[in-house]
Design a protein that fits this description.
disordered C terminus; binds magnesium ion; 32% helix; binds adenosine-5'-diphosphate; alpha+beta; four-stranded mixed sheet
């Protein structure tokens, strides 16, 4: 469906590994003072004195995590970085370095890899992280991308999954379900295109959700906002697998239960419209859809006044006794126990 926008198809075999690495990375420069040594040696050196170092990694496999039938390569590069950075924001710190490793088959041209690296570079710029290394190898089965991100944080500001206490408020950023319904639209259009390659789909009314799927953003702004409001969450996680599964993670790590109020779950009107068209329940899309990369966190009730009026933070429930478990209370007052289905249950 989407062609590479640059026309020449330079075979990778015409470059050799070192020239390829040099070509792909020459436009990247180091901007963070904690990046002491970057690309070009046997290892990178990073350091930020007195702070703790946090590291996270993600592996993305063609056909499992992305489908090049509808994912533009530049978006793929961008998203690969962003979803990785989201894990560090979920620890309440700012990432500062990444490494990018790729395995490619000779089906890819130099121009295709350039597009992926354009997306990676844009993410580095938008999120203020330095590319300090990576690895390049060949693959026989498709494209594989692995990104590792590192960041530094003060010990007393780092937030993990295990600090929620009974009666803490459960808060989510942004709105949920968009990335999942965006994926459904893309899958449908791909199926239509297979039958009739001459169709020109008009996707404009779906653009909000398609963008959430193809070009998600990590909530750096929420970390900044919490800092400005002087709120340190008691626990936090990013929403990669759906609200339900992430609530269960906080519950397990923190040893508390949760009450979630269905009517409080933030769902954008664009998402509701697509749900109507596809005959989905929008609550189910939010609970099980995944890939929204919003932040889910708990705060002490003492911090309620600081966040209560904020347009992109919504209080959706509270922590309770572990014995109660994780319950969603519906608009009609019924209680439904949350289960972790994840996105796979939809396939
Ligand atoms: P080595 O043989 O020691 O693993 P490489 O030749 O693989 O070294 O890498 C040389 C330099 O280029 C290293 O600094 C490495 O981190 C960097 N590098 C290799 N591949 C990539 C890539 N795909 N993206 C970014 N940096 C890379
Ligand atoms: Mg190497």
């Amino acid at each position: 469906m989407l062609e590479n926008k640059k026309s020449p198809n330079t075979p990778l075999s015409s470059l050799g590994e070192f020239a390829l690495i040099e070509h792909l990375t020459k436009k990247f420069s180091l901007t963070n003072k904690s990046s002491l040594l970057g690309i070009g040696d046997d290892a990178a050196i990073i350091n930020d004195k007195d702070k703790l170092t946090l590291i996270t990694t993600d592996l993305l496999i063609e056909g499992v995590h992305f489908d090049l039938g509808y994912v533009p390569l530049k978006h793929l590069g961008y998203k690969s970085v962003v979803v990785n950075l989201s894990d560090l924001y979920a620890m309440n710190i700012y990432p500062s370095q990444i490494t990018t490793s790729i395995a490619v088959s000779n089906r890819f041209s130099l121009e295709a890899l350039e597009e992926i690296y354009e997306g990676i570079q844009l993410a580095c710029k938008n999120y203020n992280v330095d590319l300090v290394g990576g690895d390049t190898t060949s693959s026989k089965t498709g494209l594989i991308i692995s990104i590792t991100a590192a960041g530094f944080g003060d010990k007393n500001r780092i937030v993990n999954r295990k600090g929620a206490k009974e009666n803490d408020l459960l808060v989510v950023s942004g709105d949920l379900g968009g990335a999942y319904v965006g994926l459904q639209v893309l899958e449908r259009e791909k199926a239509v295109f297979k039958v009739n390659p001459n169709t020109q789909p008009d996707l404009s009314k779906y653009s909000y959700c398609i963008e959430k799927q193809l070009k998600p953003e990590a909530r750096k702004d929420v970390i900044k906002l919490l800092d400005d409001l002087e709120v340190i969450p008691t626990s936090m996680i990013d929403i990669s697998d759906g609200l339900s599964s992430e609530i269960l993670h906080l519950s397990k790590s923190s040893n508390v239960g949760f009450h979630l109020f269905e009517e409080k779950i933030p769902i954008d009107p664009h998402v509701s419209l697509i749900c109507e068209e596809f005959k989905f329940n929008s609550t189910v899309a939010a609970l099980n859809g995944g890939e929204d990369y919003e932040l889910l966190f708990t705060i002490s009730q003492n911090d309620f006044d600081k966040i209560k009026d904020h347009p992109y933070l919504t209080i959706i429930g509270h922590a309770c006794d572990k014995k109660i478990g994780c319950q969603m209370i519906t608009g009609l007052g019924q209680q439904i126990e949350l289960t972790a289905q994840g996105w796979q249950s939809f396939s």
